[in-house]
Each structure stands twice: as C-alpha cells, then as structure tokens.
Fold:
Amino acid sequence: MEPFAIAFAAGVSTKLADSLKPPYDNVFGVIYGILNGILSFYAFPIVLGTTLGVYIAGKIDKASHRVGTAALLFISVFSPKNHLLVFPFAAIASYLDEKLPVRITLPLTILLLSPFIGWDYVLLLLAWDVGYNLTSYIFSLPPLQSK
Structure:
C-alpha cells in the first residue's frame, strides 16, 4: 500500500508545483522531487522515462520543476535499475502525452507492457494520475464565496 500512497502524493505535489505561485510552488517542487525519487525505487523506468519525455517536450519550464527534477534525479541514483527496457518506451510515450491533446499514450504503453513487467507499474501510474488529476480538478473549481 505504501508505494501507491507515495505515487498518489507525488501526483498531488506535482500538480501543486504546477499550480501555485512562488515560493509555495518551489516547496512542492522539492516535495514532488523527493516523492518521485522514492517512487523510482518501485518503478524506476517509468519515473525516469517520464521525466526524460517531459524534459524533451519542454515542460520542465519553471524553477519548481527544475528543483523537483534535481531532487528526483539525486534520489533515483540510489534506486534499483530494473526493467530498463521499459525506459525508452516510457520516455517516448511521455513525450507524446505532452504533445497530444489527450494524455493516454503513457498509460496505454505501460498497460501493454504490464504482462511482461508486472501490474504494479499500471497501478502505480494510476495512483499518480489520480492524485495529479484530482488536484487539477480541485484547482479548476470556483472559489467558495462568503456571504
């Protein structure tokens, strides 16, 4: 259960780093970097492949994302390097997700690879996406009005 909670929290903190203004975005950048770095111990090729794809797509464009990416890369140096053949697929799929109007390429790629690499990767990606998209939805709601 712990890796899925980490994945969910990593998705939430990544979206908060996207949505908040300085200095709060930088705080959540560090948090998401640490959480995604820890997540790399469970899903190294997806975490690092996704990071590379997002970087190539030009989406690591704020200080909070650069700080988060630095923390992620530092921590991931110590993670086990399993299923490395998944890495290029995750990088390409992540890049395409950033360029296409619907982000479905990475989840479909990991789903298609899951019989070979395990279903945990699908569930970890799902937990991360739920955290990210739920936070995105909450930020899209109109603010509460006081009377």
Observations:
- The mean pLDDT is 94.
